[in-house]
Amino acid sequence: MKRIATPPITRSVECGAGMAALKSTRIVYVAPAPGGSGVGDYAVDFASALVPHVGDLVQVQVAESHNATLRAVAREARRIRRLVDGYRRDGPTIVHFEQSGASLVPFWAAMMAPEIPVTATIHDPPQPVWWPFASRTVLRSRWLHHGLHYPLRPLSTVLQRRMADGRVLMTLTSVGAEETERRLRGTSVVTSRHFIPARPTLPPLTDRPLAVGLFGYLYKAKGFDGLARLRATLDDDVDIVVAGRGTEALPTVPGVRVLGEVNGTDEDDFFARIRCLLVPYAKNTLYGPVYAASGTVSRAFAYGTPCICSPEGALSEVAAEGGAVAVEGGVEALARRAGDIVRNSHDLNTLAEQIDVLKIDRSVTNCAVPLLNAWAPIALELT
């Protein structure tokens, strides 16, 4: 097991005039509504951690864009701009957006005048949005979706640089920050990590059933399509348990138990049934690699559960920092490594110790610090 490496994140809120000014500044916080995506769920807890440090925090929740027309996206973006204009007349205001690959409103609404202080967390770096025209109509056809977006990549880059120019962006991985700075010149990028949420303490890993799990929202890049190969490679006495929104639609695989969406005590029970979580993600896309943090990994760490992952995207960074093991060689190699680890008490205990350190380091309060420190000089300029 690798020794844990402490990530380069500032964990103390700066003192001084900037932070005092922030206490008199309103934050308009625009994010997807919870329940529709990992970003929306992330935003609920993250916004709560910001409240004690700012004058006022106004949460603006927007619907997921894949169900919207471009006209509806434009209308919602105008509504947010009007809202911001009203708050700016009432006092110092900073606008922050939670942006992700196909989340259109937080991207287009961020196209504000240069004098309006705008910041954003980009969850799928190095691009704030990967498909800026992915409306309901466009997404009905795979051919239309990629036939439109792939040749318009140069235009997408221009739009992204227009949105980000002179702004402060935050990423949740270091490699994501590096790639974002390279792609979006003229942008200031700060780095944090995906916070580890508070969850009940579960039995030690070695006292849990001999099982592995997969967890998260169902979509192709999550690796759920490899379930049959995972089952064929793992020993028969190692169970596979799957949970997450949409997973109930997965094809039946003998020897794989699918729970569907789990929340509250059902989520606790899911993690109590497994010794490690498999993360066979594929983050290299037709449009380039994605260096996103994994909310699924953070959720597993919350329950003291280690992860066995592919080295795609930023997952090799996750493994280097502790609590996870990255495995080259595809789904079969990942399954073989997981089969070894779930039987090895020393490996399980080492990973559990690393996770205990990370749970302290990556509290939501600590992970909010880089953004608060980036806001402080902006707030000072507004006063």
C-alpha geometry: globular
User: What is the name of the CATH class of the largest domain?
Assistant: Alpha Beta
Please give the alpha-carbon distance between the first and last residues: 50 Å
Order of helices and strands: HEHEHEHEHHHEHEEHEEHEEEHEHEHHH
Strand arrangement, major sheet: 2-1-3-4-5-6
Structural class, judged by helices and strands? alpha/beta
- Largest β sheet strand count, sense and barrel closure: 6 strands, parallel
Beta-strand share of residues = 15-25%
CATH topology of the largest domain: Rossmann fold
DSSP helix fraction:
40-55%
What would you report as the Rg, rounded to the nearest angstrom?
21 Å
Describe this entry's structure for a reader:
The strands form three sheets. A six-stranded parallel β-sheet has the order 2-1-3-4-5-6, sandwiched between helices. Strands 9-8-7-10-13-14 form a six-stranded parallel β-sheet, sandwiched between helices. Strands 11-12 form a two-stranded antiparallel ribbon. Helix 2 packs across helix 15 and helix 9 packs across helix 13. Helix 9 (227-233) links the parallel strand 7 (211-215) and strand 8. Residues 1-8 have low confidence and may be disordered. By secondary structure, the protein is α/β, with parallel strands linked by helices. It has 15 helices and 14 strands. The radius of gyration is 21 Å and the shape is globular. The protein has helices at residues 17-22, 38-50, 70-90, 104-108, 136-139, 142-149, 153-164, 174-183, 227-233, 265-272, 295-302, 315-320, 330-341, 345-361, 364-382, and strands spanning 26-32, 56-62, 93-99, 118-122, 168-171, 188-191, 211-215, 239-243, 256-258, 276-279, 284-285, 288-289, 307-309, 324-326. The protein folds into two domains: 17-195 and 363-382, Glycogen Phosphorylase B (Rossmann fold); 205-361, Rossmann fold. It is 41% helix and 16% strand.
